[in-house]
Amino acid sequence: MATIAERYAQKFATSMAWYERGQSLFAGGITHQTRFTSPFPAYIEHAEGPYKYDVDGNRIIDYVMGNGCLLMGHNPPEIAEAVAAQAHRGTHLGGATTHEVRYAEVVKRLMPSLERVRFTCSGTESTYLALRLARAYTGKTKLVKLHEHYHGWHDYAAPESGQGLGGVPQVIRDEVLVAPADAAAVDRMLTDDNDIAAVIVECNGAHYGTYPLPNPKFLQDMREVTAGHGAVFIMDEVVTGFRLSPGGAQVRWGIEPDLSTMAKIVAGGQPGGAVGGRADIMELMALRDDPEWDAVHRVSQGGTFNAQPVTAVAGTAMLEAIANQGVNARADAMAQRLKEGLNEVFKQQAVTGHAHGIASIIHVTLGADCDCDRDLCSMPYDEIAAAMPLSKTRALRRAMLVNNVDMMGGRAFLVSSAHDEEVIDQTVAAFSQSLKDLKAERIVV
Fold first, then answer.
1. Could you tell me the pTM of the whole model?
2. pLDDT for 418-435, tens place per residue?
3. How far is CA 275 from the centre of its chain?
4. Alpha carbon distance 285, 269 (integer Å)
5. Number of CB atoms found within 10 A of residue 316's CB
6. 4-74+326-440 carries CATH number 3.90.1150.10
C-alpha cells in the first residue's frame, strides 16, 4: 500500500510543479511561512463556502479559512457583492471617505471599550502601533509579552514567539521581557522594573489558543496587575476579535483593556487591521497644529491602504453580518459538533490525544491527554509542545490533505458559519481515516 507521502505526491502532482516554479522566485519557494507543507504545499485555484479547489481539481474542506479571516466562509454573497461594487467605484480614493466612518462605527458598536479607532493594513502593523502608543503614553521603554505568544513579525514581537530572530537587534531584544503565563510572575516583573510601558497578551493563549490561558481569570488578573503598576494593557484580538464572541474575547469575558489590536475578521477577508482603545492614548496620534507636538511628540502613523474603500466595505459587511445574522452562533455550533466528533474518533481509534477549544477554534493534541473539560485545555505548555512537534503536525496536515481536508498548521480547525453538519461529519470521517493512516506508519500509536 502506498505511503501517505506517496499518495500526497500523486494527488497534488500539479501543485508540485507550481512549487518548483516558485522556488526560483520566492525565498523558500513560498510567500508566507505557514503556507509551507512538507514536501510542498497544495496550490489553490478558487474557493466557495467551506471548500477550496486546487490546481489538480481536488475539492478540499477548508479549515485554514484565510488564516482565520473568513468567519463566514469563502465568498459570502453580501461581502462579495460589496467588494465588487466598490471596485467599480474606486479602490483607492486618495482621501477621507464615508466608508471609513461607517466602518469604524460598526467596529466600536461591537467592541464598546474602543473610544477611538485607527485602521492599519495588517495584524503586525496593529501590534506595532499599539506598542508605540504605549511607550509614548507612559514615557517608558520596555514591553512584557508572554512566552510563545505571537503578535506578528516585527522586531518587538519576535522574542520567544516561535519564530526566528534573524535581523532583530540585541538592543530591541533587551527591551522585550518575556514572562510565563503566570500573573504573579508578570506582577513581579512590573514591580522590579519601573521602565515597562505595556503588557501584551494573545487573549486565548499562545498561537491562537494552542496553549490555552486559564480564562477569564488570567485576563482579569492581567487587567488588575497592569492597572496597579500604570502599564498599558493590550489585548491582542487579531485572531480572537469578533470570533470568540461578536465583540471578541473582551466582550466574552467582560474585560476592558487599554488598547486592542485587530485584523483578520475585522477586514472581511481583505488586507486590513485596526487599533482601538482609550481616547487619551489614541489621541496621541492627533495633529494639533502645534509644530513641536506634531513634529516631535506625536505618534505618527501612515499607511497608504489604511481603510481603503474595498477593505472598508468588506469589513463593514462582515461586521454587520456578525452583529445581526447569528454568524458566531452557527460557527460555534459546528465547531462543537466537530470537537465532539474528533474526540469520539480518538476513543474509537484508541489513540492518545484529544480535541479542545472554544467558540469556533478547535485544536488537536496527539500523543498526550488530560482530564480537561475540552474547552480550555489545562495541560501544561511543555506537554503540549512535546506531544505536537513540527514533524507530527506536518504529518497530520499531509494525511488530512490526502483525505481532502486542510487544517490550520496541522493542528487546528478554524470553523466558519459556512460549514454545515454534512461537512463536519465528512471532516470527522477524514480525521478517522487519517489516524488510521498515521497509525499504519507508526507516526501515532
1. 0.95
2. 999 999 999 999 999 999
3. 15
4. 27
5. 21
6. yes
